[in-house]
Give the backbone structure.
Amino acid sequence: PMAHEHLCDKMRELHVRHPHLRFAFKDSVLPACTMNLGPQSVSFVHADGGDYPWIPGSIHAFGSYNPQLGGHLIAFDYGFFIPFPAGTLSLLSSSGLRHGNTAIQNSETRYSFTQYVSGHLMKWVAYGCRPAGKVERHEKALL
């Protein structure tokens, strides 16, 4: 709840400064998204270093595949994987957790939809919606 409230506050502040901006989705506080349209989307081991680390992003799996044979969500830093059937939604700190998913069978399809917040966007808002070069050193120290 606190992370959600923090993000809501920052997005309101952004909207006050830039009222022409619109969210991609009316009922989501996460301002960015990616659609992986495959048809056999596989995500190799990675961490999304540009994402804001204190707000979890979402991963939503779609398609027609056997979740016992493939498409597993892998949490590399914790050394485990779990079945991730179509229709499943996961929330995780994608910048702080190396993750990915396993391949599916040749005849199957898998897509994913992710939502997240950019760390650079949050920095922009923290800097009063100004470029970093316009923020004085003493102001940065207060953040």
